[in-house]
User: Which sequence fits this backbone?
């Protein structure tokens, strides 16, 4: 009789331990949003530069990402970068974007879900603004509407900690003063890389974020019912 009670005790212990472990593992994925920082390098293509990766400048910023589910997210990002050209002094500019992101896998640590992975490539696109490329023209007032887009790789490093590396392109949708004036529009033939003949800001960044805004979820009871 005692042996049966001991076996029953251990069976119950293992059962509830497995449920608790599952709940704790699932709890890692019960946050709605992330806040993080990014840093890297950038360069621009336009009236004074037509060579990829030429005249690189530093880039840094911060972002907020809202995760609708493990595949879809919406991100707001603000960055500061320095651009260099052949005929103008280094210029400090700011860019603000709102983009939609799509993960190719369910980005979560859930061993009980078939398509969940802690690592996933992703793509994104949206709308943004940035200040002028050419120093002194508009005193850093946002005046360019841009089309940000790109791709990257996300990684869940651990409990509430995430990382990503991405390439971002920002295509200006409005022309600057140099494009408005036929006498100065692309005088050296340096801006013909895109059909719009508009400036293009490119950046390669690494980011780190922390999960915030915990979801309301009675995960343990839901697991027991199943």
Assistant:
């Amino acid at each position: 009789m005692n042996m049966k009670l001991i076996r029953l005790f251990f069976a119950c212990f293992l059962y509830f331990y497995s449920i608790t472990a599952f709940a704790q593992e699932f709890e890692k994925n019960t946050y709605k949003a992330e806040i993080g920082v990014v840093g890297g390098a950038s360069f621009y293509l336009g009236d004074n530069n037509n060579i990829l990766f030429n005249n690189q400048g530093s880039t840094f910023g911060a972002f907020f990402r809202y995760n609708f589910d493990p595949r879809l997210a919406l991100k707001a990002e603000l960055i500061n970068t320095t651009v260099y050209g052949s005929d103008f002094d280094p210029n400090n500019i700011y860019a603000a974007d709102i983009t939609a992101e799509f993960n190719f896998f369910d980005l979560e640590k859930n061993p009980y879900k078939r398509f969940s992975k802690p690592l996933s490539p992703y793509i994104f696109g949206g709308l943004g603004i940035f200040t002028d490329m050419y120093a002194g023209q508009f005193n850093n007032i946002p005046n360019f509407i841009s089309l940000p887009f790109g791709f990257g790789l996300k990684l869940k490093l651990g409990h509430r900690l995430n990382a990503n590396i991405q390439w971002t392109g920002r295509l200006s949708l409005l022309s600057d003063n140099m494009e408005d004036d036929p006498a100065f529009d692309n005088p050296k033939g340096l801006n013909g890389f895109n059909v719009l003949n508009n400036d293009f800001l490119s950046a390669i960044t690494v980011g780190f974020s922390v999960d915030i805004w915990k979801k309301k979820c009675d995960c343990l009871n839901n697991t027991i019912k199943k």
